[in-house]
Structure to design on (181 residues):
């Protein structure tokens, strides 16, 4: 209706799906402070803070420390190894949060050739009709969730406990300043 009338509406909600569906621009606030303003796509794909990343959808997140910055990525030491990711929000040194959304991960043969690759233990999968969730555990105990939809869902032919390859592009990983919350 607001598009048809050409009017601006301010709509306050705690429902992320509703905000993503209705808005052309979203302002995310945390304890009275603005965390980020942007389009739904920008806020989801390029969160400025850990709070925003966690607020909009599921995300695999690890604490880490930036070891070096290259032109195209940051090299981050985490409990599961050295990982490459895209620094955001001033995350150029020190302690950071390393984050990657489940739908950005690849599993099995799809993971070969990715910038970041890990051998993980296969924990199982949850078939939900139009999507499949794959659950894995890294050597240090960190669990990573992989989400595939439609034709992207792959048959792994893996049994619980088998080693599977999980990978993702450095451009799909977000390196954010650490929050003390």
């Amino acid at each position: 209706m607001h598009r048809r009338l050409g009017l601006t509406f301010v709509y306050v909600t705690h429902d992320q799906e509703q905000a993503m569906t209705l808005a052309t621009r979203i302002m995310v606030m945390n304890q009275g402070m603005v965390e980020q303003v942007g389009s739904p796509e920008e806020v989801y794909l390029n969160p400025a803070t850990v709070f925003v990343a966690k607020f909009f959808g599921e995300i695999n997140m690890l604490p880490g420390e930036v070891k070096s910055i290259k032109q195209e990525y940051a090299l981050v030491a985490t409990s599961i190894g050295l990982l490459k990711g895209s620094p955001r929000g001033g995350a150029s040194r020190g302690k950071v949060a390393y984050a990657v959304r489940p739908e950005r991960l690849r599993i099995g043969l799809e993971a070969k050739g990715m910038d970041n690759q890990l051998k993980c233990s296969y924990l199982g999968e949850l078939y939900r009709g139009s999507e499949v969730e794959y659950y894995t555990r890294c050597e240090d105990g960190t669990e990573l969730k992989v989400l595939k939809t439609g034709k992207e869902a792959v048959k792994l032919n893996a049994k619980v406990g088998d080693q599977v390859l999980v990978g993702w592009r450095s451009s799909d990983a977000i390196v954010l300043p650490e929050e003390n919350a």
